[in-house]
Amino acid sequence: MLKGKFAFVTRDDELSLEIKNDLYKFLINNGLVEDVDSPNYVFVIGGDGTVLSAFRKYLDILSDVNFLSIHTGHLGFYTDYQAKDYENLFEDMIVKNPKLESYPLVVVEAYCQNGNLLSKNYALNEITLNNALGSTYIAEIFVDDEHFENFRGDGICISTPTGSTAYNKSLGGAVINPNLDVFQVTEIAALNNLVYRTLGNSIVLSKDEVLTIKPKNQNHNHRLSIDQSYYSFDSLSKVIVTLSKTKKVTFIRYNEVSFWKRVKRSFIGE
Ligand code: NAP
Ligand code: MN
Q1: Are residues 196 and 223 in the same domain?
Q2: Residue 128 belongs to what domain range?
């Protein structure tokens, strides 16, 4: 049985709150204590979107926290238990020793024209960069300081392996096993002509490679999304994205479900 401090991040619908109340009683009866500020375990009840907000809430103490989530809806990507059989979790917690699985995150640094760092943040799914007003985004893309391509299109999506099944997948990017320490760069509706020519396919970068995006119109309306959050910048000289070397996200798994089984279950069907 787990020992220590727990917290909940719950979507506020009736079913999620009901499961939370049940699980709360179970945890208290088994000697755990609630600590919303510095938990060892965060139980997430809701959808993958709820997992993203739980991740954001505990970003500063990520190395101390393990997540476990119950999906109230269809089975989500980050989740192991469905609402209809969440009671299995109680038995699993008593009789099984869980496995911990850690997944890589991307870190993004945005710089303004005088070279100052505007923002540094981490994404569990992806970051995207585009024009806040909807016109095309024009940028030079560099890998490790070497010019790679001139992009013009709706925007650029840079995803983690676990985020590869989210927005990245809708864009035609590859699904990546999260045991790989890599990140993926996917174009969003690139225009291709004689001036702006991009590869067309997604590229997968290693943990030691650095992606730099230098927008052409630096004083334009830049929109940076980080998972569910959006930020606007009037001035942006470059955005640097790498795989984080200091932070990972850790999930508690009681049942061994291979990543490809998760993919099949979510997108193809059993
Ligand atoms: P949302 O609009 O509810 O999310 C879109 C869908 O993506 C939901 O079905 C969500 O599952 C699912 N999802 C989230 N993370 C996933 C993952 N890692 N693998 C597979 N599916 C995943 O918004 P949200 O719940 O706040 O999630 C934000 C995410 O939406 C962003 O990080 C981005 O990846 C995604 N998004 C997708 C598109 C697109 O596909 N065209 C456009 C914008 C954003 P739940 O229903 O369980 O929450
Ligand atoms: Mn959602």
Answers
A1: yes
A2: 104-246
What's residue 75's pLDDT?
Answer: 65
CA neighbor of 199 nearest in space, from 213, 185, 215, 211: 185
Does residue 118 contact residue 233 with C-beta atoms inside 8 Å?
Answer: yes
Q: Are the C-beta atoms of 254 and 70 separated by less than 8 Å? A: no
pLDDT by residue (tens digit) across 223-250? 999 999 999 998 899 999 999 999 999 9
Cβ pair 13, 72 in contact under 8 A: yes
| CA–centroid distance, residue 210 to ligand 1 (Å) | 26
- Residue 56 maps to which CATH number? 3.40.50.10330
pLDDT tens string 79-100:
888 888 889 999 999 999 999 9
Task: Determine the distance separating the centroid of ligand 2 and the alpha carbon of 126, expressed in angstroms.
Answer: 14
**What's the mean pLDDT when you consider all of the chain?**
94
Q: Which of 22, 37, 48, 154 is catalytic?
A: 48
Overall domain count for the chain: 2
Answer yes or no: pTM beyond 0.90.
yes
From residue 49, give the alpha-carbon distance in Å to each of 54, 55, 125, 163. Answer: 9, 10, 10, 12
User: What is the pLDDT averaged over residues 148-157?
Assistant: 96
Determine how many CB atoms are found less than 10 A away from the CB of residue 210.
13
